[in-house]
TrEMBL record:
Cross-referenced NCBIfam families: rad3
Keywords: 4Fe-4S, ATP-binding, DNA damage, DNA repair, DNA-binding, Helicase, Hydrolase, Iron, Iron-sulfur, Isomerase, Metal-binding, Nucleotide-binding, Nucleus
InterPro entries in the cross-refs: ATP-dep_Helicase_C, DinG/Rad3-like, P-loop_NTPase, Rad3/Chl1-like
Residue ranges of every copy of the ATP-dependent helicase C-terminal domain listed in the record: 94-255
Organism: Caenorhabditis nigoni
Name this protein carries in UniProt: ATP-dependent helicase C-terminal domain-containing protein
UniProt biased composition (Basic and acidic residues): 392-401
One GO cellular component term: nucleus
Length: 516
């Protein structure tokens, strides 16, 4: 395409294309509207113009006419009876859908009192699901619908044009064998935005400006309605092997210009009454009986595969995100995003894999700095002036104050790393095994720990960090985890506590004579 710098590809459901180009406000040099990729589109489109009692005009004034409501209900039942698997039914608005459903639940199909209502007959024909107004309930409704599609009689989903179902959700194969649209979904005529838009277009039409393309408010209003119709129609054909029927229940569709519909659909449209529509629909699906049978088995396999995948994902993921400790370190445990904790937790077994993390969201009070100090002292032992081993012990374990100067390093050269001060409220020195335990890096605490203990360990540290748990409770919980198997790690856990609680933790350990 020589000389072409920009090409805009648009969906066929954006018809009518004239309204689209006008609203874009751009001067397109050329517009190409193609046929469907398939030579023969496997779609049957029926405009139902009449019911048992007369013409089907779904205007606002006729919406509560009992004959119109009965004819629409009967037309739906006839199509549902002849359509296998899933049926999507779209209404102009939630109010229209609610009003019709309410009347169908009360109105008998026949003259006798013993006959069933329209709604009861629909529920016998298909498993009915209704699109909710609240988006939080949509997942449950769709699940009900997809489960019903796999049942022998299939299912029907009642929804609204411009709603959550008509645009953006993919209904493939068995889930959309028929798309039925009741009425024409014109925008609310008294809506403020609609009123202003029509006023704006009327003002443009009244000007004597022949240089720019103009659009009447009436044309815009009609095109907006058909754009919503075409979006809903697009649910019926999702790939080259898909097939289905489109049923437009309103006489006014018969007088619409062909340009209002997508180009690929125009050659499939025919006009008929409700009886002929049911006969044509039955014939259409009878000719594709073998495809439907294959589709049923494939759909059941697809559902089973989806359920299996869901169960696998669910079993691999923790029931509560706060319980997920895969690839977690002590610093990650204390991340501000993981502060809330439930003390009683249901633990699901799962494989745990630990890797080192470079996270530095929160700096734990560990013994890593003390180990660096000790390593520095060993490397600079010849330069360190220490009067006696007693003074060394005092420097390590004696209570220090800012003005205390005994045991200070007399060092030439580099300064030692800043020490992590450890305050014990006693002059006694710790046993050698305790000191060895305190030298264990905190990164070693969870190595070799069972899954249940890992969960309990994480929960304990989170509770302590969130200040919902005192050190005494931490002591009891960690005691159950490490004693009697690993008392050295139990002592080392004091390094992750705040300094004032660390001293109390070690003193209590000494009092309980925890030895190993």
């Amino acid at each position: 395409m020589r000389g072409v710098r920009n090409v805009l590809l648009a969906s066929g459901t954006l018809s009518p294309i004239q309204a689209f180009t006008f609203n874009m406000g751009l001067n397109f040099g050329a517009i190409l509207e193609n046929e469907h990729a398939l030579k023969q589109v496997p779609v049957l489109t029926s405009i139902v113009t009449r019911g048992k009692h007369g013409g089907l005009v779904g205007s606002f004034q006729n919406r509560k006419n009992i004959e119109y409501v009965s004819d629409v209900g009967e037309s739906l039942i006839r199509v549902m009876e002849t359509t296998p698997q899933g049926v999507l039914v779209f209404f102009s608005s939630y109010s229209q859908m609610d009003e019709l459903v309410e009347v169908w639940k009360k109105t008998k199909r026949g003259a006798s009192d013993s006959s069933e209502t329209f709604w009861e007959k629909m529920e016998k024909t298909k498993k009915i699901a209704v699109e909710p107004r609240a988006k939080e309930q949509l997942a449950a409704i769709r699940l009900r619908y997809t489960q019903g599609v796999s049942e022998p009689h299939g299912a029907a989903l009642l929804a609204v044009c411009r709603g959550k179902v008509s645009e953006g959700i993919d209904f493939c194969d068995a889930e959309s064998r028929a798309v039925i649209i009741v009425g024409i979904p014109y925008p609310p005529i008294h809506d403020e935005r609609v009123v202003l838009k029509k006023m704006y277009l009327d003002d443009l039409m009244g000007r004597n400006d022949l240089t720019n393309e103009r659009q009447s408010s009436r044309d815009w209003y009609q095109m907006e309605a058909f754009r919503a119709v075409n979006q809903a129609i697009g649910r019926v054909l999702r790939h080259k092997n898909d097939f289905g029927t489109v049923v437009l229940i309103d006489t006014r569709y018969a007088s619409a210009k062909p340009e209002m519909f997508p180009k690929w659909l125009r050659n499939t449209i025919s006009r008929c009454d409700s009886n002929n529509c049911a006969l044509k629909t039955a014939r259409f699906f009878k000719e594709r009986g073998h495809l439907i049978e294959n589709s049923k088995s494939e759909y059941i396999k697809k559902q089973a595969k989806t359920c299996k995948s869901f169960r696998q994902v669910k079993s691999q993921s923790a029931s509560n995100p706060k319980d997920d400790i895969t690839d977690i370190t002590l610093e990650d445990m204390f991340s501000p995003a993981n502060m809330i904790i439930e003390k009683k937790e249901k633990i699901e077994p799962r494989p745990i894999k630990y890797e080192s993390s470079s996270s530095s969201v929160f700096s734990l009070p560990t013994n890593e700095d003390e180990l660096k100090v000790k390593k520095w002292e060993q490397e600079n032992d010849s330069q360190t002036n220490v009067s006696s081993s007693s003074d060394l012990n005092k420097r390590k374990y004696k209570a220090e104050t800012p003005g205390h100067s005994s045991g200070q390093h007399e060092v030439s050269g580099s300064e030692p790393p800043k020490k992590k001060k450890m305050v014990l409220l006693t002059r006694e020195t710790l046993p050698e095994k305790y000191q060895n335990a305190l030298n264990i890096p905190t990164s070693e605490l969870t190595k070799g720990m069972s899954l249940d203990n890992q969960k309990q360990f994480v929960a304990t540290l989170k509770g302590y960090k969130a200040t919902t748990m005192e050190w005494q409770e931490v002591f009891q919980r960690l005691h159950q985890i490490f004693i009697p198997d690993r008392p050295d790690l139990f002592i080392s856990c004091s390094n992750i506590l705040r300094s004032e609680d660390k001293m109390k933790y070690i003193r209590k350990s000494l009092g309980m004579k925890i030895n190993y």
